[in-house]
Specification:
Layout: E1 12-15, E2 20-24, E3 35-38, H1 41-49, H2 56-72, H3 79-94, H4 101-116, H5 122-152, E4 160-163, H6 180-187, E5 193-197, H7 204-215, E6 219-223, H8 228-233, E7 239-242, E8 246-248, E9 253-256, H9 259-269, E10 273-276, E11 282-283, H10 300-303, E12 323-326, E13 333-336, E14 339-341, H11 345-361
Helix pairs in contact: 1-2, 2-3, 2-4, 2-5, 3-4, 4-5, 5-6
The protein binds 5-S-methyl-1-O-phosphono-5-thio-D-ribulose.
5-S-methyl-1-O-phosphono-5-thio-D-ribulose (MRU) binds at residues 51, 54-57, 100, 165, 167, 171-172, 176-177, 204, 243-245, 255-256, 322.
Length: 362
């Protein structure tokens, strides 16, 4: 394994000189730190589908760089020809995963650049796309830091925090969302005791959250998902921070499978349950959690992956949804880059977007 601390790697980056998307291959972590340089659209699509790059914000940034690279390589004499090719490349990347709205959000934002500059030469539009993809990444860093600040204001030094999946630096451009308060707290000399659910079946908690928290010097304990209740009962958890992949207008928050169970336990034990996510993860066009498309993944992730030998009988049925959603009534607050939204979310999320609009006018 590399000597370099994992916190000093970039999760996702653009190498424009070599026309490559550069990502940390998260399927190999923590055993091996492998940096991938992807130049073909199929490689980028696969990287998203296979979770080599994962986490809602990181997927969005990767797709923005990906579609810029596709556009850069396009040969087109007319705007119409360029837009037809661009739209095909955008739709292709958008099909890699359905649940995290950041993927389509980032790609739509890139498409808007093309549409807004219809009269410009193709070379100019390509340059604007490059700038927009870099802006999407830079804004992601800012949003995560803001979420970290708001999250940190809700906890105190020494608190026990439970998290599910990985909504950390490895899932974003920096800091993370759910883990941002913890990383920011570390920068300020604070210490938290973090319990990270291993997060079956792909173990993002055990492999990724534990890895980055540990590297940041955080007191970290990995637990199996079914141990969360016991840890809460022991009185070891003062707050729960999770990320999100798509938040509906009513505050239902879709995140890694198992999140709804954690939210139910939190309610039972009276522990605040915070969902952390940028406004790019809030989808006001979706009324409620039931309307969110949940990605179904291959059975082998449950029956074979991580085991030396297959551990379930051949031919047995497997149900492998990658996400579920926490009902808005279980959520204490939704922490965004524009502030902390509290129930009723139908109102408070609109207020968050109002604040965003105001800030963007300035
Ligand atoms: O399937 P994954 O690993 O992409 O799922 C990731 C999550 O569920 C994260 O919690 C979510 O994307 C937020 S990342 C800041």
């Amino acid at each position: 394994m590399s000597e370099k601390n994992i916190m000093s790697y970039e999760t996702v980056a653009l190498d424009d000189d070599n026309s490559a998307l550069v990502i940390l291959n998260q399927t190999k972590l923590p055993a091996e730190v492998e940096v991938l340089h992807l130049t073909k659209q199929e490689e980028i699509w696969n990287a998203i589908y296979l979770l080599q790059v994962r986490g809602a914000p990181a997927i969005g940034v990767a797709a923005a760089f990906g579609v810029y690279l596709a556009a850069k390589g396009m040969k087109a004499d007319t705007y119409e020809d360029f837009y037809t090719q661009f739209k095909a490349a955008k739709d292709y990347l958008d099909s890699a995963r359905p649940t995290a709205v950041n993927l389509s959000w980032a790609l739509r934002r890139m498409e808007q650049v093309v549409l807004d500059n219809a009269g410009e030469p193709v070379a100019t539009i390509k340059d604007l796309l490059r700038r927009e993809s870099i802006a999407i990444k830079d804004e992601d860093v800012w949003m995560c830091r803001q979420i970290g600040e708001y999250g940190l204001s809700l906890i105190k030094d020494g608190d026990g925090i439970l998290t599910h999946c990985n909504a950390g630096q490895l899932a974003t451009s920096k800091y993370g969302t759910a883990l941002a308060p913890i990383h920011l707290g570390r920068e300020r000399g604070m210490n938290f005791r973090v319990f990270t659910d291993e997060t079956r079946p792909l173990l993002q908690g055990a492999r990724l959250s534990a890895f980055e928290l540990f590297a940041d010097g955080v007191d970290t304990t990995v637990i199996c998902d079914n141990m969360a209740s016991q840890v809460m009962k022991n009185g070891w958890v003062q707050a729960i921070f999770v990320g999100c992949d798509r938040v509906a207008a009513n505050g239902d928050a879709c995140n890694k499978i198992g999140t709804s169970g954690v939210a139910i336990l939190a309610k039972y034990y009276g522990i605040p349950f915070y969902v952390c996510g940028p406004t790019s993860t809030i989808d006001m066009s979706i009324a409620r959690g039931e309307d969110i498309t949940i990605e179904q993944r291959p059975a082998e992730e449950v029956t074979e992956m991580w085991y030396k030998k297959r551990m379930a009988p051949e031919g047995v049925k497997v149900y492998n949804p990658a996400f579920d959603f926490a009902d808005n009534e279980l959520i204490t607050a939704i922490i965004t880059e524009y502030g902390v939204a509290r129930p009723p979310y139908t109102e408070s999320l609109k207020e968050i977007f109002r604040k965003k609009q105001e800030a963007q006018k300035k």
